[in-house]
Design a protein that fits this description.
- This protein is α+β, with helices and mostly antiparallel strands.
- The strands form eight sheets. Strands 7, 8, 9, 10, 11, 12, 13, 14, 15, 16, 17 and 18 form a twelve-stranded antiparallel β-sheet that branches. Strands 5-6-33-32-31 form a five-stranded antiparallel β-sheet, with no helix packed on it. Strands 1-25-26 form a three-stranded mixed β-sheet, covered by helices on one side.
- The protein contains 20 helices and 33 strands.
């Protein structure tokens, strides 16, 4: 399990709410007045504590704010204001030996991140390219074609054989030069292998490419496999593998154990020597070579003898034979080498965005005496195909499933540009319908009046807790005020409540929270320092930056602080909540945004930065544009199953929060960027997390029976969460938080079956920790009256600061959501 949930098992190191289900020992009471020898002593101590802190915070704000001014989203606004800079130790900093000449800011959630984590060449350093898996060694980039290794009710796993199933493509050399990142784009990465006197090789890994490309510069190619060679063809003629040099432009070899046929395209033609002894198959350059090899799997069921690909229900990958004519398409388009891709978008249409994948293409035909310019052959995913512009005529292969990844079928498309039309959500502050039922309206007003008395738990009033739960509760406060506005509560009645929201929020964004947010000069981002928590009164035993940030040590304990925030886990969850809270406050107090806008922009830049030239934050940290959703797991370690994300609903909420911040400050660029990201995330949720019907085109029936994916990895889908395996936990974490925009995420067809599973298992802590509130809200999507009946008599404790599920929700929000359902 990833460290971001394991912090709840660290009783001496954690903060009060270190898991979505808090350990009892961490439940910090909002008011603790009878400790430390009596009421009077405690009140005096607390008053002094808060007064000193307020003076320090206000002084810091006055000095630092005068040094910064607001900047635009599209330009590089510079160093984040208010936050101290922090330089990591060697253990947790990016490894220059893997990043080469690339400098900060570094991507932390790229599909290829495993190439640069740990040593970069361990057994876990595997990257999913869709359709292949790739792994770097000291002198090669090796390929695997995965297969379904496990299907149960809770696991859908891709497997691969790291010994027999490995196709090694690299350089023959006595050196072990290793790899570095040479360059990267939105959709691909290029690795460089410098073998000294034995030359250089560059490998281009691009999502959705049926080829992997290798460029050689005065180096000797070496292709090996532990499988037995069954057949070798060169330029479409059978040849004998007897150690003699063979020159050609197309090499095709079939392998026994996995029944695979691979093709190697050479530009220019190359002379290779074939041996079939030790290893069982080897193709080595007869001499040093300068040119390009493109490698592609042309058949995974060549003789009908592959038990993984030729039998079973076909899920997980594994077409029972590549369709007739596929080899011809590979031949025709091999000379159009894709070495990367850019994501471009335009908001001029207003209600929709024009989203383009523009592939970076190098034409290779001239190297073999040809002159034809060829369009690249690529592979589309399920969530992409129905949004491709009607003018796009690049579909080929009769819509056949060329590959079946863990994320569904991949079909062929030809074209330098993929034009897509994405409908943009347009829900702003309130539900798109008013509360029409008079009795419901009155109940919501009464709930708002009560909720306006709610205060942050004691430790969160000074930023001693963690940024995730702080964000949830601050967003809850903003949401209560917005519900109040929607049902007619006068603004003057919310003044004190909004003051509390402003105070709690400012601690985090101005760098004065006890668990301080700092700017990470090593990776490039905003991270939490970590708090070795103790109370009463709430305090951190560590001194904080610049020298004492336990969350940034790079060890397993440090990576467990704050759900792994210091290792870049879940930033869009954490800062999405904080951004939503800031947007709500700015909606009511525009002058607040004038002062604190640059500080909030730092959080927005951390998770949703569109600017590839920003020197302080990477471009779109979390979003995987090709996969069609975000990744949450950061840089703590390389996982064999690749990238991961649990709560797609919290990811969606992050982009909703970004869009609201743009609305609040009148910045259409920020607003529309948030809308686009929200639309992409919602499509990903509807396609991959929500399983409304069975049979399903993506998941095997055995796994799909629960109708929900819990954690999605690059090579694994789990029906569980990071904090438990109970069904209500899975349903709950894929629902929260519920806001007016959630109706764009929570499809009626899915919520019907999700609510049934949720309700059938919700007991014990599902009730006491507030998860039941989301069950009521799910039920209301299809039956408003049932949802209302479920929610109207819930105890107030389900919304308390100590309720790990409900602490970000309120009675006001629950009733308002239910009452505004169609």
């Amino acid at each position: 399990m990833e460290q971001k949930r394991n912090s709840k098992n660290l009783p001496d190191e954690g903060t009060p709410l270190v898991g979505r289900k808090a350990d009892e020992s961490y439940k910090c009471k909002a008011v603790t007045l009878l400790l430390m020898g009596g009421l009077g002593v405690t009140v005096v101590l607390v008053a002094a504590f808060l007064a000193i802190d307020l003076q320090r915070r206000e002084a810091s704000q006055t000095v630092q704010h005068s040094m910064h001014s607001a900047s635009t989203f599209t330009e590089s606004p510079g160093m984040p204001p208010y936050l101290q800079a922090f330089t990591r130790n060697k253990a947790s900093a990016p490894k220059s030996s893997l990043w080469g000449d690339i400098k900060r800011p570094y991507p932390t959630h790229a599909f290829w991140e495993n190439f640069v984590l740990g040593t970069g060449v361990d057994g876990n350093n595997v990257v999913t390219t869709l359709p292949y898996l790739a792994q770097a060694t000291g002198s090669s980039l090796d390929l695997f074609y995965p297969y379904t290794s496990m299907v149960t009710e809770t696991q859908f796993q891709l497997g691969f054989d790291q010994v027999v199933g490995r196709l090694s493509v690299g350089v023959y050399s006595g050196e072990d030069g290793g790899h570095v990142v040479d360059s990267f784009s939105d959709l691909g990465v290029s690795l460089k292998f410098d073998m000294g006197d034995d030359g250089v090789m560059k490998s281009h890994v691009v999502q959705g490419s049926p080829y992997v490309s290798y460029e050689y510069d005065q180096s000797t190619p070496l292709i090996t496999s532990s499988q037995i060679l069954r057949r070798l063809m060169v330029n479409n003629e059978a040849v004998v593998c007897d150690g003699s040099p063979i020159k050609g432009e197309i090499f095709e070899f079939s392998l026994l154990q996995f029944d695979e046929t691979w093709r190697v395209y050479a530009y220019p033609a190359i002379s290779l020597t074939c041996t079939a002894s030790n290893p069982p198959m080897a193709l080595m350059g007869s001499e040093s070579y300068t040119g390009t090899l493109r490698v592609a799997l042309s058949n995974n069921c060549t003789y009908g003898q592959n038990t993984h690909h030729c039998q079973g229900d076909g899920h997980g990958g594994y077409v029972a034979s590549h369709p007739k004519g596929y080899g011809g398409l590979l031949n025709k388009h091999a000379s159009a080498m894709v070495y990367g891709g850019d994501v471009q978008y335009d908001f001029s249409k207003g209600s929709s965005a024009a989203l383009n994948f523009k592939w970076k293409v190098k034409q290779l035909n001239s190297l073999n005496g040809g002159a034809e310019v060829v369009s690249p052959l690529m592979l589309t995913m399920p969530h992409q195909r129905d949004v491709l512009d009607s003018t796009f005529n690049g579909a080929v292969g009769n819509n056949a499933a060329i590959h079946k990844s863990i994320h569904g079928t991949q079909q062929l498309a030809v074209g330098d540009v993929w034009p897509m039309i994405i409908d943009l959500p347009d829900i702003a502050w309130h539900a798109p319908r008013k509360v029409l039922d008079a009795s419901m309206l009155q109940a919501i007003k009464e709930a708002v009046i009560t909720d306006l008395k709610w205060e942050l738990p004691w430790n969160y009033q000074t930023g001693t807790g963690d940024p995730y739960n702080a964000g949830k509760m601050l967003a809850k406060m903003a949401n209560i005020a917005l519900v109040g506005e929607a049902v007619g509560i006068p603004l003057k009645k919310m003044t004190r409540f909004l003051d509390g929201l402003a105070s709690g929020l400012e601690y985090w964004i101005n760098g004065t929270s006890r668990n301080t947010l700092v700017y990470d000069e090593s990776w490039g981002g905003v991270v939490s320092c970590g708090c070795k928590y103790a109370y009463p009164p709430p305090r951190c035993l560590n001194s904080g930056p610049p020298n004492d940030c336990p969350a940034l040590n790079g060890d397993p304990v440090g990576n467990g602080f704050d759900f792994g925030n210091g290792a870049y886990n879940d930033h869009h969850f954490h800062y999405g909540y904080l951004t939503y809270a800031a947007a709500g406050l700015a909606h009511f107090r525009p002058s607040w945004s004038s002062k604190w806008g640059p500080a909030v922009l730092s959080l927005v830049r951390d998770i949703a930065n569109p600017n590839g030239n920003d020197k302080y934050f990477p471009k779109f940290r979390h979003m995987d544009w090709y996969a069609g959703h975000s990744w949450a797991g950061g840089v703590a370690m390389a996982y064999l199953n690749g990238r991961n994300q649990e709560s797609v609903s919290e990811a969606f909420n992050a982009w909703y929060g970004v869009s609201l911040w743009g609305r609040a400050i009148g910045d259409n660029k920020i607003r529309d960027t948030g809308r686009l990201l929200a639309a992409i995330e919602a499509r990903g949720a509807h396609t991959y997390w929500q399983i409304p019907s069975i049979p399903n085109d993506i998941y095997p029936t055995t796994f799909a029976k629960h109708h929900t994916a819990g954690i999605i990895w690059s090579n694994l889908i789990q029906y569980q969460t990071w904090f438990g395996m109970l069904q209500w936990e899975v349903q709950g974490i894929q629902t929260l938080p519920v806001t007016p925009a959630s109706e764009l995420l929570l499809n009626a067809s899915w919520t019907r079956v999700a609510a049934e599973t949720f309700e059938s298992t919700c007991s014990g802590t599902c009730n006491t920790d507030g998860w039941i509130t989301f069950l009521c809200m799910l039920k209301a999507v299809n039956n408003k009256e049932e949802g209302w009946k479920c929610a109207e008599n819930l105890p107030s404790t389900v919304y308390s600061g100590q309720a790990a599920g409900g602490n970000g929700n309120s009675r006001s929000n629950t009733l308002y959501w239910i009452a505004t359902r169609p």
